[in-house]
Each structure stands twice: as structure tokens, then as C-alpha cells.
Amino acid sequence: MNNLDSPVIIVATKNKGKVREFAHAFARIGKEVKSMYDYPDVPDVVEDGTTFAENAWKKAKTVGDTLGLPVLADDSGLCVDLLDGAPGVYSARYAGEGAADADNNEKLLSELESRKLGEDTEQPLLSPARFVCSLVLYDPATGEKLESYGTVEGFITSETAGCGGFGYDPLFYLPSYEKTMAELSMDQKQAISHRGAALRDLMTKLGG
């Protein structure tokens, strides 16, 4: 299975931040990324899986079968130790359906502060956390699928910093860089991020 022979990669997402990251990554190998913005007639997929892998597979299969073309799907999110792994698969809608990134970040900080009552809530690092990404590449012509996985460890910081990235990036602090994910360049982020790791794993499995 080598569906990356095509000059176009279809990614099953309407998340503009993810589209930018995939486009940046695949441009390095001369591939054009198309997203669900290019296929407006494809219905939204209800992400009701209990794991990132389940949601990625559901999106890849549903969109791939609808288009009759190979599709790459991503499901990813933030898992915070002090919140027992939340927000997890609910990362994009932690503050409710249609919530903006700022709303989700605000709720995350509020939840962490409520858990830390009686402790030193003024400390800058509130909890260990990790970003998780599951990717599935599915070919409806053969029924084959490839799965890959990536993580990156860090901490949730008490104040947002940086204007790059998206989602929880402004709160995700990386001690090795002494910066949040939102303060990194795109190249730096993809070198260490969960999505970058998952893409490298996928390329290895494809023999690329």
C-alpha cells in the first residue's frame, strides 16, 4: 500500500490549523493537501469514538467511502494528568460544541485551578500533560488501512504564551525549549509534535 504516490493528499478535516500543518508537512515532498473544504458535499462525521484511534478510523472510512478515494484522517487532543486524562477525545469541544480555542483554554485553566485548591496555584506549571495524535490512511479500493501514532510530553502552564499554532498550544509548555508550543516555528513544532511524530511513523510504514 503506497497511497502517497498521488500528488494530492486528501485529509479528512475542517480544522484550519491541522490543514496548515499537513500542507506544510506534505509540501516538503511535493504533495498538495486537500481538505473537507475542497469537498463541501461530504457530510460531517460524528466523532463518537472513545479513543483517538476510533475517531480517526471512522473519519477515514466514512470520507474515503464517500469519495471513493484514499483519505488520511487525524484525531488528536490533549491529555492532562491532573484531570485524569481529560479533555482527551473531547479536546476540540471541551467547553461545548462549537467552542473557540480561547474558550477551551479558559475551561482547562479553570478545571486545573479547581483541582489545585489548597495548593500553590501561583506556580507557573500546573500539571504534566501530553498531546496525542492518531492517524489512519484508508484506501476504499482495497479496504486497506494504515495506522500511526505520536505523542509529545509537556506541561500545562498557568498563562497563555505565543501566537502560533492552535488549540491548546499557547498553554502547552516544553521545558527543553523553555517555550510553549505556540511560540515555536512551524518547522520546530513539526520536528517534535505529536502530529509530526505520527506522520513520520506513517511515512516509515509506507516505506518512505
From TrEMBL:
HAMAP family: Non_canon_purine_NTPase. It comes from Paenibacillus urinalis. The active site is at D75 (proton acceptor). This is dITP/XTP pyrophosphatase. Keywords: Hydrolase, Magnesium, Metal-binding, Nucleotide metabolism, Nucleotide-binding. It comes from the Bacteria. Homodimer. Pfam families: Ham1p_like. Pyrophosphatase that catalyzes the hydrolysis of nucleoside triphosphates to their monophosphate derivatives, with a high preference for the non-canonical purine nucleotides XTP (xanthosine triphosphate), dITP (deoxyinosine triphosphate) and ITP. Seems to function as a house-cleaning enzyme that removes non-canonical purine nucleotides from the nucleotide pool, thus preventing their incorporation into DNA/RNA and avoiding chromosomal lesions. Its EC number is 3.6.1.66. It is an enzyme of class 3 (hydrolase). GO terms for cellular component: cytosol. Mg(2+) binds at D75. Belongs to the HAM1 NTPase family.
